[in-house]
Design brief:
mainly beta, 2 domains, 17-stranded parallel β-sheet, ten-stranded parallel β-sheet, 1 helix, 27 strands, 46% strand, globular
């Protein structure tokens, strides 16, 4: 079991407490192309779909649903429990992207002006930018096609009941760069960093094996 409070309080109770900020239960919410939505969007058992070049002046939060942010759209945050997050080309997230049990897929020329956090889902960036850290507990991380992380990549400690050695793969390819460190903070995880000749980790790699390719 993972403690939700360690993940910024993201959970069902947190979403239900925000019912005044456009809460939908058992159905999806769509913001149309080019539309501006004032305030946050919350969905339980439904997806959140943000159209091309749309603007959400608030957070997107889903429980048991996916979040899809289309090309050129803007949102303050994207947070999901038991669902994936896909952010298409040239979109902009002003703060963080957070997922508990689903993958995070970031398209080309996307700017994340905060952190990306995951517990169990993989994280993939393609030619995109993250201003701060990427953190995970169990997810693989891929930085592809010139992606750049200005902060650190951190593998956090699992403080739950899981036992045994976990294995995590971090891949940097085609000119991708981590400007900070890669830090493994859990003794029960084996991390390999696959680094091609055109990519770089400018800080230290602590607690992981680097495999040059």
């Amino acid at each position: 079991m993972f403690a939700w409070k360690r993940f910024g309080g993201l959970g069902l109770a947190a979403v239900l407490a925000l019912s005044a900020c456009n809460l939908s239960v058992n159905e999806s919410i769509t913001v149309a192309d080019e539309e501006t939505h004032n305030g946050s969007i919350n969905a339980v058992n439904g997806n959140i779909i943000i159209g091309k070049n749309a603007v959400v002046k608030g957070d997107c939060r889903a429980v048991n649903g996916n979040i899809f942010i289309d090309q050129g759209a803007t949102a303050r945050k994207a947070m999901s429990v038991s669902g994936g997050i896909e952010i298409r080309d040239r979109a902009r997230i002003e703060r963080s992207v957070e997922s508990v049990n689903g993958p995070v897929q970031i398209g080309r020329e996307v700017d994340i002006f905060g952190t990306i956090k995951s517990i169990n889902g993989s994280i993939e960036l393609v030619s995109s930018y993250v201003e701060k850290d990427i953190t995970t507990i169990n997810g693989n991380i891929s930085l592809l096609d010139g992606s750049r992380v200005r902060g650190d990549i951190i593998i956090k400690e699992n403080k739950g009941s899981e036992v045994g050695i976990r294995r995590i793969k971090i891949v940097l390819q085609k000119g991708s760069v981590v400007e900070g460190d890669i830090l493994v903070k859990d003794k029960n995880v084996e991390v390999k960093v696959f680094l091609d000749a055109s990519s770089a980790v400018k800080g230290q790699v602590v607690g992981a094996e680097v495999v040059q390719s």
